[in-house]
Design brief:
Elements: H1 2-8, H2 37-44, H3 51-59, H4 63-67, E1 74-75, E2 80-83, E3 93-96, H5 102-110, H6 124-137, H7 144-157, H8 162-169, H9 176-181, H10 186-193
Antiparallel strand pairs: 1-2, 2-3
Helix pairs in contact: 3-7, 7-8, 8-10
Length: 197
């Protein structure tokens, strides 16, 4: 597009040869697959440390958001998590804590350190290792990002409020009315997250 603009303004006399290259289509190496309800039940029954997997499955947070989550960002009164750093502006949000994982969060809040999962932020590889240990134990093949797909899919299947689902996941909305003028109450966020069984 820049070269087309340059040609139109006579800054260059011909289009570069690069425009004749075809790069092909971007093909996903491993498409994300949501967890089934049976797989989620198996995780609840696992004897390994499932805290990370269950928190991701019931919040829709990104792995990095969970790794960097400080205890001070957990509001015990409202039972919410405030995501203060995310890869997008829409990712800065308040996430309701599902009643099923509230006991896990409460236990982690009592442990030493400033971060929910540990005394200092866990690395990507540490979280990946813990996640993969659970997957091996329950004989499943999923990634941490599959958890976000699971939350989105299950809430959609349960007819969750679309604006609330986007708010929980930290997704932007292309619709100006929804993005600018629609505000989602904490009550609606809790009602929506409880649709996860």
């Amino acid at each position: 597009m820049l070269f087309a603009f340059a040609v139109a303004n006579e800054w260059v006399d011909k289009m570069p040869y690069a425009r004749h290259l075809e790069l092909g289509k971007n093909i996903a190496r491993r498409p994300h697959v949501p967890f089934t309800r049976k797989e989620i039940t198996a995780i609840w029954n696992s004897k390994t440390n499932t805290d990370i997997v269950l928190i991701l499955l019931y919040t829709g947070m990104r792995s990095k958001e969970l790794r960097e989550l400080r205890k001070e960002d957990v509001n015990k009164k409202d039972r919410t998590i405030y995501i203060r750093t995310s890869k997008t502006a829409s990712g800065i949000r308040t996430v309701p804590i599902h009643p099923k994982i509230w006991p896990i969060v409460k236990r982690l809040l009592k442990a030493p350190g400033n971060y929910l999962l540990s005394e200092k932020p866990l690395s990507y590889s540490q979280v990946k290792t813990q996640f993969e240990n659970v997957m091996k134990d329950v004989h499943q093949e999923h990634t941490s990002h599959d958890c976000r797909h699971t939350v989105a899919t299950l809430l959609n299947e349960a007819d969750g409020n679309p604006t609330a689902i986007r708010a929980i996941l930290g997704h932007a909305d292309g619709d100006v009315t929804s993005r600018v003028y629609t505000h989602v109450s904490l009550n609606l966020l809790h009602k929506t997250i409880k649709l996860l069984k």
